[in-house]
Automatic annotation (TrEMBL):
The species this protein was found in: Streptomyces botrytidirepellens
Record protein name field: Aromatic ring-hydroxylating dioxygenase subunit alpha
Pfam families per UniProt: Rieske, Ring_hydroxyl_A
SUPFAM superfamilies (UniProt xref): Bet v1-like, ISP domain
Cofactor(s), by name: Fe cation
Gene3D superfamilies per record: Naphthalene 1,2-dioxygenase Alpha Subunit, Chain A, domain 1, Rieske [2Fe-2S] iron-sulphur domain
GO molecular function, one term: dioxygenase activity
InterPro entries found in the cross-reference section: Rieske_2Fe-2S, Rieske_2Fe-2S_sf, Ring_hydroxy_dOase_asu_C_dom, Rng_hydr_dOase-A
Keywords: 2Fe-2S, Dioxygenase, Iron, Iron-sulfur, Metal-binding, Oxidoreductase
Domain Rieske, chain residue ranges per copy: 37-146
Amino acid sequence: MTTTSASPSLVSTLSGEFYTDPEIFAAEQERIFEAMWFCVARAAELDKPGSFRTCQVGRESVLVSRARDGSVKAFLNICRHRGARLCTQESGEVKRAFQCPYHAWTYGLDGKLVAAPNLTSMPDVDRVAFGLVKVHVREWLGYVWVCLADDPPSFEEDVIGVVAERLGDAEAIGNYGIDGLRLGRRITYDVQANWKLIIENFMECYHCATIHPELTEVLPEFADGFAAQYYVGHGAEFGEEAQGFTVDGSEGLDRIPTVAEGQDRRYYAMTVRPQVFINLVPDHVIFHRMYPMAADRTVVECDWLYLPHVVDSGADVGRSVELFHRVNQQDFDACERTQPGMESRAYIKGGVLVPSEHHIGAFHTWLQTRLGA
Ligand code: FES
Ligand code: FE
């Protein structure tokens, strides 16, 4: 696990093995995805007691569900009897309890073991001790975040604080009222590329002029390659011609009323390590979560969120969805074109970071520190 320097003024990237080696991926699962706060679901998906969602976090399957008291609970999705996967669906709803499909051990919405065939003949099975294994859970911005660590890092510092720092203002994110917005569209992308290629792509705009014609039309400053999507804390200004953040620059939908005047006609973007990207524009919010599945496969779930009355009215969100959907496709195509190169002997020593990509170098340093390399 080494990097090399190409020349004094240019910085080299990670070597190819970082994007292909299953052992490095396993270390990332353990030391990053299972150790940090990980965003798993939109809280509104869990709209009633018994609604649930499952997803892969590091090497574990996690079950998040709405309990009877309205709170969100998170558990390891593993039956305590003989270890079968409890919920096999990605999402759904149970009436009162989760029942294991193997021998029918049954768990309440609070995770407690409530029934099992012949349970009365097994007095030493403690129903709490043999309940589902709990996972730390938080709700913020209308999303459910979990942490598998026994002793989780500070959510305030690692998530809320990072967003505030990116925007240069602790209050700014609140202006978008993200928890009160409604899902207008969700698109899930199954990307055949390592999660770091996706993050690195998101962190630089050197590629914007080449692959994002629609985006650079709306955000002309992206065409010069220096805007970093990773951290557009100043807000990229819409081009004079653009009336809204839409695929053809036409007018957007109703503006979020609490967006400040200085945030109007501007695009903000940020990465919250390790797997969330947030884009803010005056009339909607685009919220990406990455689910790293293998060294060469990442599922990306992208939500477009609008004011509730906009979604309820059946207004056409298509033109605003289409803009970033195209950006996503253009970016993920680029990542998939790059993935095979990571195995090539041409990339054994890695590649080069140009000056406008310097913050990718900071990401690599962060990654290697976390991996203890
Ligand atoms: Fe779940 Fe036996 S493994 S009930
Ligand atoms: Fe891009």
